[in-house]
Amino acid sequence: MSFARASIGLIALAASVSASIKTCSNNNTLSCHSSSKAGTCCYNYPGGALLQTQFWDTDPVSGPTDSWTIHGLWPDNCDGTYESNCDESRAYTNITEILKAQDRTDLLSYMEDYWVDINGDSESFWEHEWGKHGTCVNTIKPSCYSNYSPQEEVGDFFQKTVDLFKGLDTYKALSDAGITPDESKTYTLSEIHGKLNQAWYFFNVRGNAITGKYQAADTLTKASCPSSGIKYVPKSN
């Protein structure tokens, strides 16, 4: 699938994280920038690159007409490969109930608007994203918490993904560059990168995936895109 990438600066987002997650010092090595072959609660490995991915769904339409929607937060092995479904024992199938039990109703409400499944089954979509990708983020394993409460890391994962998404307004960034949805207008590759149905933002992280500092990184994948005739169609019925 084609993708678009935008470069942004250092990100340090305040999030509603669990108080019991272990803290990391300010001089942690940036992920993907060490010869170490081991992960710790303060060093993301092997999934050292984290991708915040977004959708622009038009057939059928999902999410607000003036916003992209969340796909997920994916750990990448710093080379375009990735692990998946890393801990079947934590592949929970009750994300909504977990978030409600953690009193994250505001988060859940936001997800219902901006993290939506194209077929209308958002719960299954969230379960898939957590089981396939969330369980592979080594810095949010239960052992990385003090006084750990079961499933605590699940809420932190979804909160962090939403917080990153809120700071990466793809619709506005494109609009500010004069690139807006249109049924007939096309763009060249020099204007935008890829067919606009998905955007991937690549980061390395200094510290753990929840409280660490995210730094924009170059793309780890290559897309085969036409040089012109690229469409960005509006969401409509």
TrEMBL record:
Signal peptide interval: 1-19
Active site: H71, E129, H133
Superkingdom per UniProt: Eukaryota
Pfam families noted in UniProt: Ribonuclease_T2
GO cellular component: extracellular region
GO biological process, alphabetically ordered: RNA catabolic process
Membrane-spanning ranges: none
Keyword list, A-Z: Disulfide bond, Endonuclease, Hydrolase, Nuclease, Signal
GO molecular function annotation: ribonuclease T2 activity; RNA binding
UniProt key word Signal: yes
InterPro entries hit by this protein: Ribonuclease_T2_eukaryotic, RNase_T2-like, RNase_T2-like_sf, RNase_T2_His_AS_1, RNase_T2_His_AS_2
Gene3D superfamilies the UniProt entry points to: Ribonuclease T2-like (3.90.730.10)
EC number(s) recorded for this UniProt protein: 4.6.1.19
Family statement drawn from the similarity comment of this UniProt entry: Belongs to the RNase T2 family.
PANTHER family, per the entry: RIBONUCLEASE T2 (PTHR11240:SF79)
The name this protein goes by in its record: ribonuclease T2
Organism: Penicillium cosmopolitanum
